[in-house]
Design brief:
Blueprint lengths: L1 H25 L19 H20 L9 H10 L5 E2 L5 E4 L14 E4 L5 E3 L5 E2 L1 H13 L9 E3 H5 L13 H5 L7 H11 L3 H6 L3 E6 L1 H8 L8 E15 L9 E12 L7 E5 L11 E2 L10 E5 L2 H11 L3 E3 L12 H4 L4 E5 L4 H14 L4 E3 L14 H6 L4 H6 L12 H13 L1 H5 L7 H7 L7 E5 L6 H14 L4 E5 L4 H13 L10 H9 L3 E4 L7 H15 L3 E5 L1 H4 L7 H22 L2 E5 L20 H5 L2 E7 L4 E8 L4 E10 L4 E4 L2 H9 L17 E3 L5
Parallel strand pairs: 12-13, 12-14, 14-15, 16-20, 16-21, 17-18, 17-19, 19-20
Antiparallel strand pairs: 1-2, 2-3, 3-4, 4-5, 6-18, 7-8, 8-9, 8-11, 9-10, 21-22, 22-23, 23-24, 23-25
Helix pairs in contact: 18-19, 21-23
Protein name: SF4 helicase domain-containing protein
Organism: Circinella minor
GO biological process, one term: DNA replication
């Protein structure tokens, strides 16, 4: 009886609690939480079913966006995951075991390339931090580490090959079968090996190790100059070939096929036997994005090597290895570009010797590469540390002069802190500037040598303002000058906010060929290949774009492609529709110019900014005619104005911060080539005779470029 009363009382308490909860639910009290959509999918109402479906699909999308690592542990999955995340493993002495970056040490410790992975189980172990775990733990940790750098990979930058339609995802576009390319080393005769030993002091064994070959390629310059519209096949010449290789891991599709590492040739550089440092042909013209990047000599590096020498040219790499015995590789091109696609190949080394040209440009590039690769593991080699005016500048020149290359390597130096130095640190830099005055002045223009007499050259770290009336040819002139510097080895980034990139590329292709290619269609492929090989890149932005987005893309281009010249055409189109009032637009423009000035200085790149004037097109412009406030010209190092004279146009240099020289450069426009050229002697004589017009009284009476030198302000 007592037990029955207790049960009845308990039932009443439960009923009262349920009644209270029901009342609270009817009054929408926040005490009871709403159930998750996944828990009410069995309810019969259509509204609940729809909500459940939407919630389920949303979670699926979120899970897909997280890019969960593969759950399987097959060899193929392991290798694909590593290469997809820019990790390049190397073999070890143990079967079914590879060496790669440790997910815990990467980006933190110097010796991060220390994790061994068992391809049978996926288990890993690091010999640096002694961490170990399963394959799932490896993928999760590595993905989390790399997630910071992969937040936004759409940097709105592409190269000239993308515009011309040359890039594909099927692999390298070799001009001939890969089997034929891999047979090039067998074509090197014993007589040629002996000639190279006597002429270049390169041992035959080194040539064989680096797989230097011989093949016939078309010399584009010789064909265009001599053959014209003749047969391309008849203009082939024997070339020395330097293969660019990488290391790949192939998983056997069938049981009888073995899994193995193999050397893969991704590109071939063909040079003249008499001038092995001058590139005639690159096959293919551009590196494919669907395969790993390659380096000359990469296949010669043992799997357990911890140090490597990086040079500018192939001859320097072979000379450095022959004299020191340390594995040596060279840059893909001689343009001082250590592209982002190449960096994973160098991550495995704990010590990198940067043995570039011992001059101003070479040592500046070496310092940039050291910042990119990591200063603690980089050493800079000076070939001419003795300060001899006739001393060697490259490793191969040192070999030719019987210098002690091993001693040069032993005296390699590390970079010091940027903010702390003494004159001993500056002494070598000052000496290089004294010995290389042309490099200190900057890259010289080949199309307009008269411009060199005033501006002295194209220098990094400066901001140039180009302005002129509408229709005066601002885009045409700056595209020609940028192409001129680009052909001299200056990696260039173009930001065209006014005209599409395809139209700009067509204009530049005409300027490169110097003719209207529609009248010479058979030459298009040759000039297009030349154009693709240039270190030229384009921003995908068009019309109004925020300055922070532009600088973000520019920063990526500087890091990924070592861009040294950035052109933005033009400021008004880039900032259009971003200011609500005229006062806002002026302030916005001042802020943009200040950011560009800061970027040019910090990144040590030259920025050319096209700005529209604010005066009427019929008046001659001056430095105050640039649209906006005075801050635009105050921040600039150079101000160049295109003036429309009565009978001739000219470039009017109104500001030159380098040495204060000002002046004017008259020019003639060539319609077929879409280029300008300086006046010939006859045109200058005719020009000097016409002195009575109002236009020529503003010019030099001699007919040449007028120059006025002002004392430089420090």
């Amino acid at each position: 009886m007592f037990t029955t009363l207790i049960r009845a009382r308990s039932s009443l308490i439960v009923l009262r609690q349920q009644s209270i909860l029901t009342t609270r639910h009817l009054h929408r009290s926040p005490i009871i939480k709403k159930p998750h959509t996944a828990t009410i999918e069995i309810l019969p109402t259509s509204h609940s079913t729809t909500s459940t479906t939407v919630g389920h699909e949303s979670r699926q999308v979120q899970q897909q966006q997280k890019q969960q690592p593969p759950a399987r542990r097959s060899k193929k999955d392991i290798i694909e995951f590593l290469y997809k995340n820019q990790q390049h493993p190397v073999p070890t002495g143990t079967p079914n075991t590879i060496l790669t970056n440790c997910p815990h040490c990467i980006r933190i410790r110097k010796a991060s390339f220390a994790a061994t992975i068992d391809l049978s189980t996926g288990a890993y172990k690091c010999r640096t931090c002694h961490s170990k775990g399963s394959w799932n733990q490896f993928t999760k940790t590595l993905s989390k580490k790399l997630q910071v750098d992969q937040v936004d990979t759409n940097y709105q930058v592409y190269n000239s090959s993308d515009i011309l339609g040359g890039n594909n995802d099927t692999g390298p576009r070799f001009s001939r079968p890969l089997e034929e390319i891999e047979s090039y080393p067998s074509h090197v005769s014993s007589e040629l090996k002996q000639t190279w030993l006597e002429q270049y002091k390169i041992d035959p064994a080194v040539l064989e190790l680096y797989q230097v070959g011989v093949a016939n390629y078309t010399n584009p310059t010789a064909y265009l100059e001599e053959q014209g519209e003749g047969s391309i096949e008849s203009s082939t010449t024997e070339c020395i070939t330097f293969p660019q290789t990488t290391l790949t891991y192939t998983v056997g599709e069938k049981e009888e096929q073995e899994d193995e590492f193999k050397i893969e040739t991704v590109r071939v550089k063909a040079c003249s036997p008499d001038q092995p440092n001058d590139t005639l042909v690159l096959d293919p013209p551009t590196a494919s994005e669907s395969v790993s990047a390659g380096l000359f000599g990469y296949h010669t590096i043992p799997s357990d090597a911890e140090a490597v020498i990086l040079t500018r040219r192939e001859m320097d790499a072979m000379a450095a290895y022959q004299a020191t015995g340390i594995p040596s590789i060279s840059l893909p091109t001689a343009n001082y570009q250590l592209q982002e696609s190449v960096l994973p190949l160098v991550e495995r080394f704990s010590k990198v010797y940067l043995w570039l040209d011992d001059d101003v440009d070479g040592q500046m590039a070496a310092e940039r590469f050291a910042h990119k690769l990591g200063e603690p593991r980089c050493l800079l080699v000076n070939t001419n540390a003795e300060g001899d005016a006739d001393g060697p500048r490259t490793a191969h020149q040192a070999l030719m002069q019987d210098k002690n290359l091993l001693q040069m390597l032993q005296t390699a130096r590390r970079l010091k802190h940027d903010e702390i130095m003494d004159f001993h640190d500056l002494r070598e830099e000052v000496f290089r500037e004294v010995m290389n005055p042309e490099q200190t002045a900057g890259v010289q223009s080949k199309d307009l040598p008269q411009l060199n007499a005033i501006l002295k050259g194209h220098r990094p770290g400066e901001l140039t303002i180009l302005t002129g009336p509408t229709g005066s040819g601002k885009t045409t002139i700056i595209s020609q000058l940028s192409l001129d510097y680009c052909t001299s080895g200056v990696p260039t980034l173009w930001g065209s906010f006014e005209i599409p990139n395809k139209r700009l590329a067509k204009k530049m292709l005409y300027q490169l060929s110097g003719k209207d290619l529609s009248k010479s269609p058979r030459e298009f492929d040759i000039w297009a290949d030349k154009f693709e090989q240039l270190p030229l890149y384009f921003l995908k932005f068009f019309s109004s774009t925020a300055i922070r987005d532009v600088l973000k893309a520019c920063s990526h281009a500087v890091y990924a492609y070592d861009v040294r010249h950035i052109i933005l055409d033009n400021l008004q189109f880039m900032l259009s529709q971003q200011g609500r009032s005229s006062l806002d637009r002026w302030e916005l423009q001042d802020d943009a110019v200040a950011e560009l000035r800061k970027f040019a200085t910090e990144q040590d790149v030259h920025i050319t900014l096209v700005v529209h004037p604010r005066k009427d097109a019929n008046d001659l412009l001056d430095i105050n005619s640039v649209f906006g406030s005075a801050k635009v010209t105050q921040e600039a190092d150079n101000v160049v104005i295109i003036q429309k004279g009565e009978t001739r146009r000219y470039l009017d240099i109104k500001k030159n911060r380098y040495d204060g020289t000002l002046g004017s450069v008259p020019y003639e426009f060539e319609a077929d080539a879409l280029k300008i050229r300086g006046l010939t002697e006859e045109e200058q004589q005719k020009f000097s005779q016409e002195k009575n017009t109002s236009f020529y009284t503003k010019f030099s009476p001699t007919g040449s470029s007028s120059m006025t030198r002002y004392p430089r302000k420090y």
